[in-house]
Design goal:
1107 residues, Jelly Rolls, OB fold (Dihydrolipoamide Acetyltransferase, E2P), 6 domains, seven-stranded antiparallel β-sheet, 36% strand, flat
Length: 1107
C-alpha cells in the first residue's frame, strides 16, 4: 500500500527540501540584539535574542525565559519585540516550496511561545498555491483571562498571565507540532508568516516546517488506519484522545507531521531526525495514521482505558481480524492490552490479549542501526512483539451487521510503547471447535496461560471458594497431575455474585484471560453436575513459599499455586495495611511462617558478584482481608494469624484471599520504658514531611536552587501536630533531647512544642532549626526540655559539594546538613555535658538504577565521609566528648552492598563489601569507633521502618566512647511503622498516637547521675550515695551534718544564739554523704552518732577540690 510522505520542508534538523525561495526583509533589521524576526541557530548566529533561548540547564541556571533548549542546535525561526524603534507595524517572511504532483497536502509546524502576551500580539501563517488566493493555515490568539506555568529545562517554573494559543491549545516553552490540511494542489506553495509583538519578554519560536501528502488505501472488506484511510468504519469512539496532561503519554490515533504531538517512545526517529534515539516503533518513512499507547497510568487516570471501532460487516461470514502490532520496552506484568469484539450487541469475546515474559529479554534494533536489549518483552499469541510492526490474525465467532471492536489497555511507564496499524476485517473460515482441557493445562507451567485468549472447556471441577464477582474451581485430588509447577486452580469471573456453592462440581466453558497477569476464565457458561469434597489445600509455612530464591518450591514461585486453596497455620504480618485511593485500608504484607521478614546485609538478589547478597525476602506476599467478602480489618505489622483461602494476583503481586481468617493483633502503641531516676534520654524521630498551613516565600539553597515549601490545609496541620505530640509524649516518653527530621521550619517546630505542652503541661520544649538546602524545604532540628541547657547550635557542611560521577558537575552534598547541639543536662548540683549531632542522609531510592545508581551511591558515600570527618574532628578536639550521632541515616546497621552509610560514620566497616569502594579509597576515618546503640536492641525488635514487608533500621544512634559506657539501653517506640498507613489521617482519640509518621522513634537512655543524688557522674566522688543516709545513729548534733530527709541539702541542728553555723549540699561534697565521708576518712564513731562535724565537712570539701 502507498503511505503518506513528507515532500517538502525547511528547518528540519537544519535541512530543507524542495524549498525554492525564502525571503525576509526583516532579517538583521533591528538595532537591538534583544529584538528579532528571523532564522537563528545556536553556535552559528552572531547573536540571538535572549528571550528565545532556554539556557537554564547549563549555560545560565538563573534563566527565567526561553524556548529553544541547550541541546537544540538546529536552525529555528525566532520572534521577539517586532514593534520597536526600527519598526512600528507588522512584519512578514515568505517561503516557496515545489509541490508539483502532490495531492492531499497538509502543513505541520513545531511552535512554542512564552511570555505575558497582549491582545495586540499575534502571528499568522497563510498560504497560496500558484498565485491563488491567500488562505489561513494557523492564527494565534491570546487568552487574556488565563495563565500558564512554564517549566524551563533547568527545572524552575514560572506562572505567567495571558498565554498564547493555536488551535485552542496553549503554546508552551516546549516546541509542539501543529498540523492543518491545505486546500488545493499545484506547483508552487507560497507560505507567509506575518507577526507583530511589542515587548522584549515575550518570545515565539518555529521549527520543522513540513508539507506532506496522503497515501492510498488497499482493497479490503472493512478496515481502519490503512494508508490513513478507513472503509466501512461506522463509528470510532475514544474518550482518551488528548486526555493526558503529558505529551509523553497517550492512548489514541497519531500521524507523523499531523498530530500536535506524539509520545517520543512510540516514534523511531533514529534514522535521521534524532540518531541518538533509543526507543521507537513507527519508522520515519511511516507517515500513515497509527494507534499508539504510552503510560496510561499517570496523573490523569490509574484505570484501564479503552477505544471502540464499529464496522459494517453486513453480509460477511467467517470473519477474520488482522492487526499490525509492535511493542518496545521493559514491561511489567501489570502492563497489558486486549482487543475484544461483539457482533450486534452480543457478548464480548477476546480477539487478542497480550502477555509479558517476565523471565525473558529481547534485542530491539532501531531503524538507525542501534540495538537495545530489554527485559520482560510483550508477547502476542506466544510471539514477542518487536519494534517492527507484524501482522497478527484471529478468526471471529459469529456474524451480523455491526462488529464492535474494543481496545482496552493499561501501561505504567513512559519508556514502554505499543503501536497498532492496519486494522483489517476479512472473510475467512471461522473459529475452530472448543478444546476441553484440565485446569493444570489451562494454567501451564509458565508466567501466563499457554491458551490465553482462547475459548476452552474444563469439566467436573470443584468450587472451592466464592467471591463477590466469581468463584474458584480446583481439580479433584484424583485427577491432579501432581506437578508442583502447574496450578490446579483457576478463577471464573462472572461479574456478579455467582450462582454456585462451595463444593459444587461444575463444567465451565469460557475465554482464558490474563487479567493484569491473573489467569481467569471469563464470559463463561457454567453448569452444575453435583457436589464433592473439597480438594486438599496447599500448606504454606516457613519453607513454602521458599525463602531462598536459588531454591524455589516450584518453577515459578507463587505462580504455580495461583487459584489454589491455601492453608496457613501460623503466619506473621510483616507490613501493615497499605493505602490506595480506592482502598484506604488495603492489603498487608505477610509471611507464611514466623518470625516476620527483616532486611539483611547485601545487594538485593541477584546482587553483584563479589559483594554481599540479600535474598530479597522472596517469601513475602500479601493478604487482602476482605477480598472475598470477609469483614475488613486493620492489622498491625507484628501480628500473627491463621487463614484458609485462595492465592490470587492483582496489581503485580500475589495475595492470599482468605475465606477464614483469625488474627492475633500486635499491641499498638507499644511505648518505650520510662526513664529511671538518674537517667536522661536522647531520642530521634522522622516527622514525615511536617509542613504547616502557611505558604512561605521561597528561598535559595547553597547551589542556587529555589526552595519552595509544601502547604497543607489547616485541618491536616492540626491533626498532624496532635498525632505527633501525642506520640512523642505517650510513646517516646518525651525525651530530654529529641532530634527530628523532615520538618519544614522553626515555626512548625515551635507549633509542635506548643502542642506537646497541651498533651502534658509538664513537658515544655524549646525548638531549634537551621534551614538547609532541600528544595522541598524539609530540614533537621532539635526539641529540648527544660533541664537541657543549649550552649550552641551549629549547622555543618551546608556549602559542601561533590562531583556527580554521571554528569561531572559539582552538586550540593548535604540537602539536609547535619546539625550539632552542644549543651548539658542540668542536675540539681551540676551539669552533665552532652553533644548531639542529627543527620538525615540521602535516601536509598535509585541506588541500584543503571543510570542514576552511580550518582546516588557516590552522594551517599561522600555524605557519610563528610559526617565521619566531622565526628573525628570532634573526638580529636575532646577525646572524652560525650557525642551521639542520631537521626534518619537512610542506611542499615550493616552494609547494603553498595555503601555502608552507617559503618563509615561509625568507623566500623569493610571496604571490600561495598561496591562504591571500587572507585573510592574508603579509608577508616573514625578512631576510636563509635557504638551503634541499635545493636543492643533485641534482634526481633531491631527495626524503625518497613519497606515492602521487610522490617529494617534506618534510624540509628551512634555514641562516642565518652558516652557509650554511660548508656543503659535503647528502645524503639512502636506505633508508626507497624500501624496502618491510613491511620495518619485518623485524628480520633483511640488512634491519635498511631501512624504519626512512617518511622518509629528511637530513644537512648544515658545514666548521667548514677546514684540519683543530683550530682552528675563527672563530679560525683561517691557514686553509691543513699539519701536519706543511715546516720546519725543517736541524734543530729549542733553543727553536725547528715542527709536525713531525702534531699541533697545536709541537715543540721543550729546553735543557739549567734554561734557559728554553715550549710552544705551534696554538690559541695562531690556527691558524698556523711557516712561515706566517715568511711573514706576513717573517722571516729562520734560522727556516726551525731553527724559529721563542720570542720570535717570543710576539710573534705577542700580535699576533693584539689586537682
Amino acid at each position: 500500500m502507498a503511505q503518506a510522505a513528507d515532500i517538502a520542508w525547511d528547518m528540519v534538523d537544519g535541512t530543507s527540501q524542495n524549498l525554492t525561495s525564502y525571503s525576509n526583509p526583516f532579517a538583521g533589521a533591528f538595532g537591538s540584539q534583544a529584538d528579532g524576526f528571523q532564522k537563528y541557530q545556536r553556535g552559528v548566529s552572531p547573536s540571538i535574542p535572549f528571550a528565545v533561548l532556554d539556557d537554564s540547564l547549563v549555560i545560565f541556571p538563573a534563566d527565567s525565559l526561553g524556548i529553544v533548549k541547550d541541546g537544540n542546535v538546529n536552525e529555528f525561526f525566532g520572534i521577539v519585540d517586532t514593534e520597536n524603534g526600527d519598526n512600528a507595524g507588522a512584519v512578514s517572511a515568505t517561503w516557496e516550496f515545489d509541490v508539483s504532483g502532490a495531492t492531499g497536502l497538509a502543513l505541520s509546524i513545531e511552535m512554542g511561545a512564552m511570555g505575558d502576551f497582549e491582545s495586540s500580539d499575534f502571528f499568522e501563517w497563510t498560504y497560496s498555491i500558484d498565485g491563488g488566493p491567500d488562505l489561513g493555515a494557523f492564527a494565534s490568539t491570546v487568552d487574556e483571562e488565563g495563565a500558564n506555568t512554564y517549566v524551563l529545562e533547568g527545572g524552575a517554573s514560572f506562572t505567567l498571565s495571558d498565554p498564547m494559543l493555536v488551535q485552542d491549545t496553549i503554546l508552551t516553552d516546549d516546541l509542539a507540532a501543529f498540523s492543518a490540511p491545505l486546500t488545493g494542489s499545484g506547483s508552487v506553495l507560497t507560505l507567509t508568516l506575518t507577526a507583530q509583538f511589542n515587548g522584549g519578554t515575550e518570545a515565539v519560536v518555529f521549527q520543522d516546517i513540513v508539507i506532506s501528502e496522503s497515501g492510498v488505501p488497499p482493497d479490503a472488506s472493512a478496515f481502519d488506519m490503512v494508508g490513513s484511510e478507513s472503509q466501512n468504519l461506522v463509528a470510532y469512539t475514544n474518550p482518551w484522545t488528548d486526555a493526558f496532561g503529558s505529551a509523553g503519554d497517550g492512548f489514541q490515533k497519531y500521524r507523523r507531521n499531523v498530530s500536535a504531538s506524539i509520545p517520543f517512545a512510540v516514534a523511531d526517529d533514529s534514522l535521521s531526525i534524532f540518531p541518538a534515539d533509543s526507543q521507537g516503533i513507527i519508522k520515519e518513512v511511516n507517515q500513515d495514521e497509527f494507534f499508539g499507547i504510552v503510560d496510561t497510568v499517570n496523573g490523569d487516570t490509574s484505570d484501564p482505558v479503552s477505544a471502540t471501532w464499529d464496522f459494517d460487516v453486513s453480509g460477511l461470514g467467517g470473519l477474520e481480524l488482522s492487526i499490525d502490532m509492535g511493542a518496545m520496552g521493559d514491561f511489567e506484568s501489570s502492563d497489558f492490552f486486549e482487543w475484544t469484539y461483539s457482533i450486534d450487541g452480543g457478548p464480548d469475546l477476546v480477539a487478542f490479549a497480550s502477555s509479558v515474559d517476565e523471565n525473558g529479554s529481547f534485542t530491539y534494533t532501531l531503524e538507525g542501526g542501534a540495538s537495545f536489549t530489554l527485559s520482560d518483552p510483550m508477547l502476542m499469541q506466544g510471539t514477542i512483539l518487536s519494534n517492527d510492526l507484524a501482522t497478527f490474525s484471529t478468526p471471529l465467532t459469529g456474524s451480523g451487521s455491526t462488529l464492535s471492536l474494543t481496545l482496552t489497555a493499561q501501561f505504567n511507564g513512559g519508556s514502554e510503547a505499543v503501536a497498532f496499524q492496519n486494522i483489517v476485517i476479512t472473510e475467512g473460515d471461522g473459529p475452530p471447535p472448543t478444546p476441553e482441557l484440565e485446569i493444570y493445562e489451562i494454567q501451564g507451567d509458565g508466567p501466563s496461560s499457554p491458551v490465553e485468549g482462547s475459548i476452552v472447556s474444563t469439566m467436573d471441577n470443584v468450587v472451592t471458594t466464592l467471591a463477590p464477582d466469581g468463584f474458584f474451581i480446583q481439580t479433584p485430588n484424583e485427577r491432579s497431575d501432581n506437578d508442583v509447577n502447574t496450578s490446579d486452580g483457576v478463577f471464573v469471573f462472572t461479574g456478579a455474585p455467582p450462582g454456585v456453592a462451595v463444593g459444587d462440581v461444575v463444567d465451565v466453558t469460557g475465554e482464558v484471560d490474563e487479567f493484569f497477569g491473573f489467569t481467569e476464565m471469563k464470559n463463561a457458561e457454567v453448569s452444575v453436575d453435583g457436589s464433592a469434597a473439597l480438594p486438599d489445600a496447599v500448606a504454606f509455612n516457613g519453607a513454602t513459599p521458599s525463602p531462598d530464591p536459588l531454591a524455589p518450591s516450584c518453577l515459578i514461585e507463587f505462580e504455580c499455586y495461583e487459584g489454589m486453596l491455601i492453608d496457613i497455620a501460623e503466619g506473621a504480618v510483616s507490613g501493615p495495611n497499605q493505602r490506595f485511593s480506592s482502598d484506604l485500608v488495603a492489603e498487608v504484607y505477610i509471611v507464611a511462617g514466623t518470625p516476620r521478614a527483616f532486611r539483611e546485609p547485601g545487594i538485593e538478589y541477584p546482587g553483584e558478584f563479589g559483594y554481599p547478597e540479600w535474598d530479597g525476602n522472596p517469601e513475602v506476599f500479601e493478604l487482602d482481608p476482605d477480598k472475598l467478602g470477609l469483614p475488613n480489618q486493620v492489622i498491625p505489622a507484628g501480628s500473627t494469624f491463621s487463614a484458609v483461602g485462595v492465592l490470587g494476583f492483582e496489581f503485580g503481586g500475589y495475595e492470599l484471599w482468605p475465606s477464614s481468617l483469625t488474627v492475633q493483633a500486635a499491641p499498638l502503641p507499644d511505648p518505650v520504658r520510662e526513664s529511671l531516676e538518674g537517667e536522661m534520654t536522647v531520642g530521634t524521630l522522622n516527622l514525615f514531611r511536617l509542613f504547616d498551613d502557611v505558604d512561605d516565600a521561597p528561598d535559595i539553597a547553597a547551589d542556587g536552587r529555589e526552595r519552595d515549601d509544601f502547604v497543607v490545609s489547616t485541618t491536616e496541620y492540626a491533626r498532624r501536630l496532635a498525632k505527633l505530640s501525642e506520640h512523642i509524649v505517650r510513646v517516646l516518653d518525651a525525651p530530654d533531647i529529641l532530634a527530628v527530621q523532615e520538618v519544614e521550619s522553626l515555626t512548625a517546630m515551635e507549633d509542635l512544642a506548643i502542642a506537646i505542652g497541651v498533651v502534658d503541661s509538664e513537658v515544655q520544649y524549646s525548638a531549634y532549626l537551621v534551614e538547609g538546602n532541600d528544595v522541598g524545604t524539609i530540614d533537621v532540628g532539635f526539641l529540648t526540655r527544660q533541664r537541657i541547657q543549649v550552649d550552641a547550635i551549629t549547622q555543618l557542611g551546608k556549602d559542601e559539594f561533590y562531583t556527580n560521577p554521571v554528569t561531572g558537575e559539582e552538586e550540593i552534598l548535604h540537602d539536609r546538613p547535619p546539625l550539632l547541639l552542644e549543651g548539658s543536662y542540668q542536675l540539681e548540683f551540676g551539669a552533665f555535658p552532652i553533644s548531639v549531632m542529627t543527620v538525615h542522609n540521602r535516601s536509598l531510592g535509585s541506588i541500584d538504577s543503571p543510570s542514576e545508581g552511580p550518582r546516588v551511591r557516590q552522594k551517599r558515600y561522600q555524605q557519610a565521609v563528610s559526617i565521619a570527618q566531622k565526628v573525628q574532628a570532634t573526638q580529636e578536639a575532646d577525646p572524652d566528648v560525650r557525642l551521639i550521632v542520631t537521626g534518619d541515616f537512610n542506611a542499615f546497621e550493616f552494609t547494603d552492598g553498595y555503601v555502608d552509610g552507617v559503618g563509615i560514620i561509625q568507623g566500623l566497616y569493610n571496604p571490600a563489601e561495598n561496591l562504591v569502594c571500587e572507585t573510592n579509597d574508603c579509608p577508616d576515618l573514625v578512631q576510636p569507633d563509635l557504638t551503634n546503640e541499635v545493636q543492643g536492641v533485641a534482634a526481633l525488635d531491631r527495626y524503625s521502618f518497613i519497606f515492602r514487608g521487610s522490617a529494617q533500621v534506618l534510624d540509628h544512634a551512634l555514641t562516642s566512647t565518652g558516652l557509650a559506657e554511660e548508656v543503659t539501653g535503647a528502645e524503639f517506640g512502636r506505633g508508626n511503622a507497624d500501624a496502618a498507613i491510613d491511620l495518619i489521617n485518623d485524628g480520633s482519640a483511640a488512634n491519635l498516637p498511631l501512624r504519626s509518621s512512617d518511622h518509629d522513634g528511637l530513644v537512648v537512655y544515658v545514666l548521667n547521675d548514677e546514684d540519683a543524688d543530683g550530682v552528675p557522674n563527672d563530679n560525683d566522688a561517691c557514686p553509691g550515695t543513699s539519701i536519706p543516709e543511715s546516720i546519725p545513729s543517736t541524734a543530729l548534733g549542733i553543727n553536725r551534718f547528715a542527709l536525713t530527709d531525702g534531699d541533697g541539702v545536709f541537715d543540721t541542728a543550729l546553735p543557739e544564739g549567734e554561734g557559728p553555723g554553715a550549710q552544705f549540699t551534696v554538690g559541695d561534697t562531690g556527691g558524698c554523704s556523711c557516712e561515706q565521708i566517715v568511711a573514706e576518712q576513717g573517722l571516729g564513731k562520734g560522727h556516726l552518732k551525731f553527724g559529721c562535724s563542720i570542720g570535717e565537712m570543710e576539710e573534705w570539701i577542700e580535699m576533693i577540690a584539689v586537682p
